[in-house]
Amino acid sequence: MSLADGVILSLVAAACTLVLVIIPENIAHNQLDSASKYSPIWIFIFYLFLKDETKNNILPWYFLMIYTTVGILILEAVSSFNSTM
Fold first, then answer.
1. What is the spatial distance between Cα 62 and Cα 41, in angstroms, rounded to a whole number?
2. Predicted structure pTM score
3. Residue 55, by phi and psi: left (phi above 0), alpha (psi -120 to 50) or beta?
4. Where are the alpha helices (H) located in the chain, listed in sequence order?
């Protein structure tokens, strides 16, 4: 693992967290719970603990953060759509 990989992954975690904070509050007018809102940060923390065991392959961690963020946004959109009916 180089320093650049960890820095880039932390920037992806910060960007995904900002998306999870801004989009539900401004578009759906809902707030996420803290576990959902900060899930990319939790994934980054798990990466820090497991980075020696992942054999320097950082690509799955990027996909995990992005897919988790998109999944939470989709579930929030479905939940807000169902609550209006």
1. 12
2. 0.84
3. left
4. 3-23, 34-37, 39-50, 59-83
Dihedral of CA 4/5/9/10: which sign? negative
Q: Which structure tokens are listed for 12? A: 């992806």
pLDDT given at position 4: 79
Task: Name the token pair of 77.
Answer: 């959109």
Asked whether the CA dihedral 81, 72, 11, 57 is positive or negative, the reply is negative
Output the CA–CA distances (angstroms, integers) from residue 81 to 23, 30, 31, 46, 77, in the order listed.
Answer: 15, 12, 15, 32, 6
Contact status, residue 36 vs residue 72, Cβ threshold 8 Å: yes
68 within 8 A of 40, measured Cβ to Cβ: yes
CA 83 to CA 19: how far, in whole Å?
22
Please tell me the distance from the alpha carbon of residue 24 to that of residue 37, in angstroms, as a whole number: 10
Mean pLDDT of 64-76: 93
